[in-house]
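Bit of a strange request maybe. I'm writing a small parser for C-alpha cell strings and I need a real example to test against, not something I typed by hand. Could someone generate the C-alpha cells for this chain?
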Amino acid sequence: MKPAYLITRDDGGLDGIAGQRFASYDEAHAVLERYYADLCCSDERECYSIVEVPG
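Reply from user aminoacidic:
Good idea to test on real output. This should exercise your parser:
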C-alpha cells in the first residue's frame, strides 16, 4: 500500500488547507507553495506541515 501525504496545521487546527490528503509529497507541497507565495514577513499566517500517513 502506497503512503499518502496529509497537510496538517502546526497548531492542530482545521481549515480549508489542513486535512487535505494527497497521493504524493509534491502535490501537497505545491498547495503549500501557492499558499505561502505572497507571504510577507509581517503576515501572521498559520504554519503547516506535510506528514506521511498509511495509504
